[in-house]
Amino acid sequence: MLSQPQAADLAAQLVEAATRARASAADAMIGISRSSGISVRLGIVEDIDHSESFEVGLRLFDGQRSATVSSASLDPAGFAELAERAYAMARQAPEDPFTGLADPALLGRNEAPDLDLFDPHVPALTMLESRARTAEEAARAVEGVTNTNGASAGFGSSVVALATSTGFAHATSGTHHSLSASVVAGSAGALQRDYASHSTRYFEDLDAPEAIGRLAGERAVARLNPGRIESGTYPIFFDPRVATSLLGHFVAAVTGGAIARKTSFLLDALGQQVFGPGITLRDEPLRKRGLRSRSFDSEGLPCRPLDLVADGVLTTWLASSTDARQLGIQPTGHASRSVGGSPGAGPSNLMLLPGSHSREELLASVPKAILVTELIGQGVNPVTGDYSRGAAGFLVENGKIGEAVAEITIASNLKDMFRTLIPASDLELRRGIDSPTVLIPAMTVASA
């Protein structure tokens, strides 16, 4: 695999080829990744996978026209042809008054902080197999587990480089380790399934396979024999596993593209109270070993911690340079893109900061509620905020988690949900988007 300096130099060579092809401006990305994984089911190896991918992406401008092309070859001998093809495409594209590279004055120039994203430890395939086997065995040992969908362990590494014709050139390296298990509990006609998983940058931070397997088994068994509840209005708790989806809907509503297209239910909410007082949503791009940590965004702008919501007030949109020009604001350092694509906008490590009450205290704060642990379907209207999704989880009475419930639909509007949302204090930083348990005091519940 190329080193970071080699990858950055290769991206710069592609930009030079674009300049020679008469481009008025250009940027290039290089992406290289390797991964290995193994899956077992019922103690038998089902799949062994090893992959390597190489991708080169060039975004070329001819004035206010642009085109993006990609290739799977890292050979500089082909860069001239790739650049000529991109230039020919750009000449045929319509003009866009908002397109272009980031303002050179805003580009990151200083030495990037060390975010500790690369683990030198490369697990052997035999180790991955052993961990997958151990996780599955721990899951099958839970009383009530009757079958398994298998367990998987994996490792990967990557190098991504960005160079621009305005003088930016930088590359980053990262690794990821993962482990998961999925099992089935119950007998024919009354089966339930669930899973547990964990992903980290460093092997030493990964949960033990015994813990992952046991959790998967316990989750599946807990869902057996779901009861029926009456339709009506209930307080709804979102377990951290599914509470993150609410933050995903929020992110989609505050991206510059959605605002520019006027397709967001938060279109006129900037500077307004969107969540309750005391609520903070923070983006932490510089977190060490974070799954989405980065020093620079995909346009070369430096990343910095930012509270998207402070004391319940929406403080900013997430804007790439194109979004920012359309909206008449400054880009926010949240440009995000694939190697062969154009920049959009999105967060890095986003988290809803914890509240002052423990999960147990929050569960006990209402006499009867539903704890949702699984969401089904995509019934969310991004323009109006109307929310309706299938769900499963558990009945909560007087703070005690009771019988499982399934085949219900929960409905409300995201504006109302955000405004009344109450977070617990059980935040754990395990994903790219993290949330504690949250309570929505009133939602409509329909039982099948």
List keywords for this structure.
alpha+beta, 448 residues, Metalloprtase-TldD/E_C, TldD/PmbA_sf, TldD/PmbA family protein, five-stranded mixed β-barrel, six-stranded antiparallel β-sheet, Metalloprtase-TldD/E_N, PmbA/TldD fold, 36% strand
Brief summary:
The chain is α+β, with helices and mostly antiparallel strands. The protein has helices at residues 4-20, 79-92, 125-140, 209-222, 240-254, 256-261, 321-327, 359-363, 414-420, and strands spanning 25-41, 44-62, 65-71, 145-164, 169-185, 192-200, 232-238, 281-283, 306-310, 313-314, 335-336, 344-345, 350-352, 368-376, 386-397, 400-413, 422-423, 433-434, 438-447. The chain is built from 9 helices and 19 strands.
Q: Based on CA inertia axes, which overall geometry fits?
A: globular
Strand content: 35-45%
Poorly predicted regions are none
Distance between the termini: 53 Å
Number of individual domains: 2
Written as H for each helix and E for each strand, in order along the chain, the element string is: HEEEHHEEEHEHHEEEHEEEHEEEHEEE
Could you estimate the helical fraction of the residues in percent?
Answer: 10-25%
Number of strands: 19
Radius of gyration: 24 Å
Query: Reading side by side through the largest sheet, how are the strands ordered?
Result: 3-2-1-4-5-6
Instruction: Compute the average pLDDT.
Output: 96
Describe this structure in words.
It is a single chain. This protein is α+β, with helices and mostly antiparallel strands. It folds into two domains: 4-220, PmbA/TldD superfamily (PmbA/TldD fold, 2-Layer Sandwich), CATH 3.30.2290; 226-448, no CATH class. Helix content is 23%, strand content 36%. The strands form four sheets. It has a six-stranded antiparallel sheet with strand order 3-2-1-4-5-6. A five-stranded mixed barrel has the order 7-14-15-16-19. Strands 10-9-8-13-18 form a five-stranded mixed sheet, covered by helices on one side. α1 (4-20) crosses α2 (79-92) and α3 packs parallel to α4. The chain is globular, with a radius of gyration of 24 Å.
